[in-house]
Design goal:
One of its GO terms (molecular function) is hydrolase activity. The chain is of the alpha/beta class and about 425 residues long. The chain folds into 2 domains: about 325 residues, Glycosidases (TIM Barrel), CATH 3.20.20; about 60 residues, no CATH class. It has 14 helices and 13 strands. Helix 5 links the parallel strand 6 and strand 7. Helix 1 packs parallel to helix 3, helix 3 packs parallel to helix 4 and helix 11 packs parallel to helix 12.
Length: about 425
């Protein structure tokens, strides 16, 4: 029997959103977890808000850490494993950074020695607090922290690729020190794969940490350009999974689809279930997929102000914990017997130079060529131009054919329905 792909959800508390850490209510959390477990999912990803947990560089609040442990234990009682994001960081358009890194204490998140010491201590503390919990999967450094490092952030913490490389190595080491042998990783939004001047690179994503994480959102131009029911929209998550493999040194490195959702109005609510079904089915056709973790568990309450409109309705469950049709789709997928996808034998060449990443973005030559192949019935993967003639590498991945983007006809416009 092949190993089962993990099915889970990013946990957004139904009461108080992530501000629930300020007045943590275990009974409310338990009710949320009951509604998640009832869908047959096996894990959650949780988000401590960094400034609530470490309001001063040398103060990590014991009560907050204790609440995180209590949440993890409540999840265990319901058969749910837990991955913990540390440096929150950025969530649903809001930045949550401690005061000791901003304004009068403005210090670079990725290069300042004191900030690095504080971050490492915080990550190590969270990991150590959970190290003896059997259902603790491990740490993710933070949620899409690369958005702090470059444009379009309004106040970026600039860093070079080498500085980011050192930051990743040190923070992952801190997690390992706190909880040896667990699944520790980092996760960025898709600028890592698509933005030429991003200091967080595809190579770092595919080589640092236990596995590679990808976050798939079709509001990045994919749905706008091609439509909600197009080949590029329904296969975007699978594309990122396969794109990440070009940079991996391990030919069978696991890839975690750690965030994916159905954002309105590009995916209207009445079409969310169909989008979910297509996205999940296509991702499951990717070899070496570790898991699918949907964004998110519960809707954001309309009592909370200033969220982008799409954020309010992304939950699998309503704010009063009722499952939507998309939740039933994920529930059914989680109940299917595991299967092992066949190798993807056709590889599309992508540039190893990170300054050419925009070729892989929506509208780029690699992106368009990949989806033309998919539309023609091919199951493509990707390979770096520097490895395109490496027989041992290709053989290890089961690749028998290599094509360049200019060998593939232009992509048709696809479904343009709104």
């Amino acid at each position: 029997m092949p190993p089962a792909v993990r099915f889970g959800v990013n946990y957004t508390p139904s009461e108080g959103w992530f501000h629930h850490w300020l007045d943590f209510d275990l009974d409310s959390v338990r009710a949320d977890l009951d509604s998640i477990a009832a869908l047959g999912l096996d894990h959650i990803r949780v988000f401590p808000l960094w400034p609530y947990f470490q309001p001063n560089r040398t103060l990590i609040r014991e009560r907050a850490v204790s609440d995180l442990v209590r949440l993890t234990d409540a999840a265990a009682e319901r058969g749910l494993d837990v991955n913990v994001d540390g440096l929150q960081g950025h969530l649903s358009s809001f930045d949550f950074l401690p005061a000791w890194t901003r304004t009068w204490h403005r210090r670079n998140l990725f290069t300042d020695p004191d900030v690095l010491d504080g971050q490492a201590a915080y990550l190590r503390t969270l990991a150590a607090a959970l190290a003896d919990r059997p259902n603790f999967l491990g740490m993710t450094l933070g949620n899409e922290v690369n958005q702090f490092s470059a444009d379009p952030h309004p106040d970026p913490d600039r860093a070079t690729r080498d500085e980011i490389d050192r930051w990743l190595a040190r923070m992952l080491a801190a997690c390992e020190e706190g909880a040896p042998g667990r699944l520790h990783l980092h996760a960025e939004y898709d600028a890592t794969w698509y933005q030429d001047d991003q200091p967080f690179t595809p190579a770092q994503a595919a080589r640092h940490g236990t596995l590679t994480a990808v976050h798939s959102w079709v509001f990045n131009g994919t749905a706008q350009r091609h439509g909600r029911a197009s080949v590029p929209a329904e296969h975007h998550a699978a594309y990122l999974v396969e794109l990440s493999k070009a940079w991996a040194e391990d030919p069978h490195r696991p890839v975690w689809l750690q965030e994916v959702g159905a954002p309105a109005p590009l995916v209207p609510p009445e079409h969310a279930a169909a989008f979910t079904a297509a996205t999940v089915a296509n991702a499951l056709d990717c070899p070496d997929l570790w898991g699918i973790t949907w964004w998110c568990s519960h809707d954001v309450s309309r009592e909370l102000a200033d969220f982008p409109e799409l954020e309010y309705g992304l939950g699998l469950l309503t704010n009063d914990r009722k499952p939507k049709d998309s939740a039933r789709v994920l529930e059914r997928a989680a109940q299917e017997p595991p299967r092992t996808p066949q190798p993807r034998t056709t590889a599309l060449i992508v540039p190893a130079d990170p300054a050419a990443r925009s070729l892989c973005a929506p509208g780029g030559a690699v992106f368009d060529a990949y989806f033309r192949l998919v539309a023609d019935g091919v199951r493509p993967t990707t390979v770096l131009d520097t490895r395109a003639t490496d027989h041992d590498h290709l053989t290890a991945r089961g690749i028998t054919e290599v094509v360049t983007p200019d060998q593939v006809l232009p992509t048709p416009q696809g479904d343009t329905r709104s």
